[in-house]
Write the structure tokens for this entry.
Amino acid sequence: MKKMIIAMTVCGMLTACSDTTENSTSKEEVKQEESKPQAEKKENATQATAEAQPEETKADETKKEETEKTTTESNKDDVATKEETDAKVKELEAKLKAQKEEAQAKQEAVEKELAEKAEADKKAREEEAERIKQEAQAKIDAANKKAEEESAKIEEEQQAQEEESSSNAAEMSKAEFDKIQNGMSIDEVVAIVGGSGELNSESGTKGDPYYTAMYSFMGEGSLGANALIMVQGSPAKVVSKSQFGLQ
């Protein structure tokens, strides 16, 4: 009995294994059948890709050539633009340099002109100052000479007047002496006497309040008769008188 059970168990196991193997075979076949279209599709896609590859490569090459051509032309344009820009920059730099040199030359010319003008003005001022100085000195010399001449002339006139007064001195009478009053000027005294007296002495300067002068007149009468008249102040007026031997 036990052997029968074992045999049945073994048989069952073998049957199960057989079913499992069949199922596995069936699944593998199904899997292969399912995989076959996919492989065909993949192969077809690969073949299509391989067929399309030359056209895409050609297009890429054409595009690359166009890109390279465009880049080359762009580079040429850039080079031309750079050369043109450099030329313009150099031209501008040369123009600016010329303008700078011209401006510097003008400035130097203006500074030179101003310096020459300042020097000329300075020289002209010095010459004018020297001319004014010489003219002033000439005027001073002329004034001094004129003053000396006038002083000499006045001295000559005074000397002539003194000589004339001494030679033409009038004699004062007692009646003329009595007419002379304090407060009269020496000119009024001379008018009464009919002639000028002799200036014996004076102190101070004419025009000063304390100016004093003494005049003597020869008198009519006894031997040695005379009269003395003193004037003082500004203008000088008679302040005192005296006589000796007048008749």
